[in-house]
Amino acid sequence: MSDRTLSRKSDPARRYAPAAFFGAVAWSLMVSPLPAQEQMPVTVYKATRNSVIERIPVVGSFAAREEIQVHSAVLGKEIQHILVEVGQSVRKGQPLALLDTTDVLMQLDKNAVSLFRANAAIAVEGSKVEVAMVAEAEARKRLERSRALQPKGAIADQVLDEHQNAYARALAELKLAQQALGLAKADADLIAHEKREIELAIERSTVRAPSAGKILSRNARIGTMTSSSAEPLFVIAEDGVMEFMAQVTETSFVRLSEGMHAEITISGRDDVIEGTLRLNAAQLDSNTRNGTVRIELSENGNLIPGVFARGIINTSERKSILVPGTAVKSTRGMYSVYVVTNNVIDVRRVSVGLRQDGFVEISDGVEDGELVVLKAASFLKAEERVTPVIANLTKVEPHELSASASFPRAEEMVRQ
Q1: pLDDT class for 414, splitting at 50, 70, 90?
Q2: Cβ contacts of residue 332 below 8 Å, gap of 6+?
Q3: Beta partners for 68?
Q4: What whole-number distance in Å separates Cα of residue 58 and Cα of residue 312?
Q5: Would you say 373 and 380 are in contact if contact means Cβ atoms under 8 Å apart?
Q6: Tell me, what's the pLDDT at 216?
Q7: 320 class by beta-carbon count within 10 Å (0-12 exposed, 13-18 middle, 19+ buried)
Q8: What is the pLDDT of residues 30-88, one digit of tens each?
Q9: CB 297 within 8 A of CB 273
């Protein structure tokens, strides 16, 4: 073994020099300050206070505001002509159908003969009355002369009695003639009344529209007989006015009141029909637990009854904080957001409200103008320093913030 080898094994300083060197380096790294850690950039959204319109979605169809059922006033008559069809607009009093008038026309002819006879009888009885009046006048004059002469002895008592009896007979005959004339006139009046009834039956044999509107249905068929138990011959939408009739669930029904604004959309049409809640049912259906509402529309042109449509009823409006739905995190039924304050993450528990079109109403936990992390992520920690980058989202209009009555289920929220 050489001297060099012996010297290396025997010198402790040489043996532990590498270990001491690396230990010194490690210590220097521990005590010397490291460069500042780079802050992670996160996209944030500036929470804003905006109008939130609470809305209730409904489905239904169009229906006439008032349906007029047209029946025939003349029963047991055959329908001979149909003058209108379904979908046609009619005016008040316009003929819709014609019934058989053969019988009533024959009755009218007979009535005309009877009326002629009645007028002739009136003329005869009138002549008798005139004759009786002349006879009564002559008898009265004779009686008056006899009464004037009897005290002077110029006339016998027997003659006076005869003149009195003659006047009494003339007076009775006049009253009898007058009664016969009255009876003849009564018969003529009765026949004239029957004529008016026949003419009315002829008039009613033309079924007319009781009001202007649109023909919704036609049950009248040529050859069928009119009956009180049959379906209406026609159904008319009065003045052609249509409404939107919808079914509303029990939970939504109790929050509705007349005068609320509504918007109706029809498949195949891009425009929205404005409306106002006019009437809601007095009670719910015991089987479906739904209630019917009627919405008065701002327009009625080209609306067809029975067409399916969707509607939204505005129930309330308020100002509230709105954030994107992706910013809300759900954990076991509780909701939270990440708020950036002075570049530091603050985990906030929040109370949520309505949601629609990707935005969520925050009723408590976030103030107007605070920066909320756009996408709630589990890798973010409380008190972690970040660099906020404000997202340039499209401005949300108030009508786009309308929402359903409750916040969506937890599984619909973003979870990470």
Answers
A1: very low
A2: none
A3: 236
A4: 6
A5: yes
A6: 92
A7: middle
A8: 444 434 456 888 888 888 888 888 888 899 999 999 999 999 998 999 999 999 999 89
A9: yes
Q: 356 to each of 261, 316, 346, how far by Cα in Å?
A: 19, 15, 26
Q: Give the three-class secondary structure for 364.
A: strand
pTM value > 0.70? no
First to last CA, the chain: 69
Between CA 302 and CA 271 the distance in angstroms is 13
* DSSP character at residue 393: P
Tokens matching residue 204: 């009613």
Q: Are 344 and 42 in contact (CB under 8 A)?
A: no
> Beta-carbon neighbour count of residue 64 at 10 Å?
22
Structure tokens at 208: 């007319």
Q: Locate 384 and state its tokens.
A: 């972690």
Per-residue CA distances from 278 to 147, 216, 258 (Å): 89, 22, 5
Inter-CA distances, 37 with 34, 347, 381, 384, 385, Å: 8, 22, 16, 12, 10
For residue 125 the two structure tokens come to 């009885």
Q: Name every residue whose Cβ is closer than 8 Å to that of residue 216 and which is 6 or more positions away in sequence.
A: 64, 67, 86, 235, 236, 237, 305
- Three-state DSSP state, 333: coil
At 206-259, the pLDDT tens digits run 999 999 999 999 999 999 999 988 899 999 999 989 999 998 888 888 888 889
Please say whether the beta carbons of 86 and 216 come within 8 A: yes
Token pair in block for residue 305: 């009854």
Backbone φ/ψ region at 332: left (φ over 0), alpha (ψ -120 to 50), beta: left
Dig out the tokens for 221 from the structure: 């068929």
The radius of gyration computed from the CA coordinates of the chain, to the nearest angstrom, equals 52
Secondary structure class of 330 (helix, strand, coil): strand
Strand duo 40-46 + 386-390: pairing: parallel
